[in-house]
Amino acid sequence: MYKSIELDYNFKDLENFLDEETLTIHFDILYKNYLNRLNKVLDQNHYDFGYSKEELIEHIEEFPIKDRDTILYNLGGVLNHERYFTILDPHSSLKKTPFLKKIEETYGSFSNFKEEFLKVASYLVGSGYTNLVLDKDGKMLIINTSNQELPDFYGFYPLISLDLWEHAYFLKYHQKKEEYMQNFFNYLNYDEINALYEEKTKEIQSL
Hints:
- The chain has a 3-stranded antiparallel beta sheet with strand order 2-1-3.
- It has 8 helices and 3 strands.
- The chain is mainly α.
- The longest helix has 25 residues, at 20-44.
- It has helices spanning 20-44, 53-58, 65-85, 98-107, 110-122, 170-173, 177-184, 190-206, and strands at residues 128-134, 140-146, 157-163.
- Helices cover 50% and strands 10% of the residues.
- It is globular.
């Protein structure tokens, strides 16, 4: 069965960004509910858990049509949450890295990138995520995905995923979603994001 990820920080470490109650509900209940439902439907199909969660997307046709939507929805809930939580960091520090160099080449500056990211995020209607992604040519794009859709469904690989479901921020920020979105950039693990960027770039170049 697929296991829950382990975080490198305690919830209270992020208290200036998100309160402990929000993080507890979000991670321990909502994220793990997606994981449990995914494991349940896969187990009912006698799946041997031989694929990574990302590989499961590419092999969805191996499952009965009646279960594919359930699998993909809950898989999206798992991966979107894992990608969100693993790039949070109470000791955020933006450094000169290949990731930052690519940001500056694409957007002119990190400040310009942040402004564009927040603008795209403001266009999202309802629940979903705003993502910085790489396409199959290694180009950076900022896209919105609805509900628990994954950028992977469209051939993209996410580097930064901002959760814009209300449960992600409402207890602390209430209607001030823009403040939550702004603060997000002060609590990102840019070392992890750079590692993701370098990993995917090498994969793209090897194709």
